[in-house]
Amino acid sequence: MTAAVGSRRIDLGKLLPQLVAPVAALVIAAAISSIALLISDKDPLLAFQHMYDFGMLPDSQVEILNKASEYYIAAVAVAIGFKMGLFNIGVEGQSKIGAFMAGALASASFMSWVPGPVRIVLIIVVAMIVGGLWALIAALLKTQRGVSEVISTLMLNAIGGLVVTWLLNDHWGVQEPGAQIKTTGILPENSWMPGLPIVSGTDQKVLGFLVIAVILGVVYWFGIGRTRFGFDLRATGYNPSAAVASGVDAKRMVIVAMLISGAIAGMVNLPRMLGESHTYTEGFGGIGFTGIAVALLGRNHPVGMALGAILWGFLARSQLILDLDGIPKEIVLIMQGVAVLSVVIAYELAARIGRRAQQKRVGVATAAPAGSAPLAAAGVPTGGAGGATAPGTTATETQAKSGDTGTEESK
Fold this sequence. Notes:
The chain has 16 helices and 2 strands. It has a domain at 58-326: ABC transporter involved in vitamin B12 uptake, BtuC, CATH 1.10.3470. The protein starts with a strand and ends with a helix. Strands 1-2 form a two-stranded antiparallel ribbon. It is globular, with a radius of gyration of 24 Å. By secondary structure, the protein is mainly alpha-helical. Helix 3 packs across helix 13 (302-324) and helix 12 (287-297) packs parallel to helix 14 (330-366).
């Protein structure tokens, strides 16, 4: 079953399983969490009701949006790698070292003359440059020595964290009066990013970096789906041989993808640093790994990742009420883990169902005369000898797009 929207044809038979999959996965996660609650002699419905009521409070909505902005930036950084067929586990380390270097530079005494707005831009730029350069190490190891990016980025996480701790405690850190830990120094007040009073019923404001997170999502959507670079990136990730045949430099694409992923990762800790703590502390961390879960949950789609980030923010916030009710907050961790696992399995099943249905339609259509309605409805191109390539589409594009329909669904 297909429906035409403008000039594009939407395969409802393939789209429906993809829409049902995340809903089914969340239902499964809730069911397994309910079983865990029952084993603990707790009422699942009551626990979920308390989580919902607490999450809907105005102060909670502000915190959910604040957490979601951080999770979303981390998810976009991970998704860039996924689109390229890379698994950048190093977002955690890239975010730490990027924010630390930016905070240390911006709070240095020789930077006192820099105007506040310029200092904010400088912090963002420095964090992105440092994060990108840290990711470049893994890219070079992969392209020049064949080292898996999974291993290298995982090790760079540990190295980056230790480097930051060493520099913070022994060299560039300062300890404010009455403080128990060292920080990079408090930024001048004119360098604090203003909040957004978008939630009624509370005096708290949403971190202003939310605007940059939204802009990042739009740029990601346009860059990946509407540009030649995005096509080369996806083609290299889905079908490397087709990309190379079309003249794409696969090694160059790996380096560029990791640079962009690391640069975005460098901004992960900036919402809190610019809008809340106004300094870098060792308390920053943990968001990079959450970004992997959010990217998987959202299937690397900008809207899907936004919804996943809000869901993760809601769960992280609402687990606070469970402690007050005497319910183990680990229930939320169980729900998060099962949700990611269920989503991966559900999407793979949905992809297989979609491919099977498409193969069945193609089988029926190919038995029909060329140019007939069943053949066109099945999406089989009829232009050219043998019907191998649609008019105006090169063989390379056709091959790359065929990789798109298979590999992305299985990710």
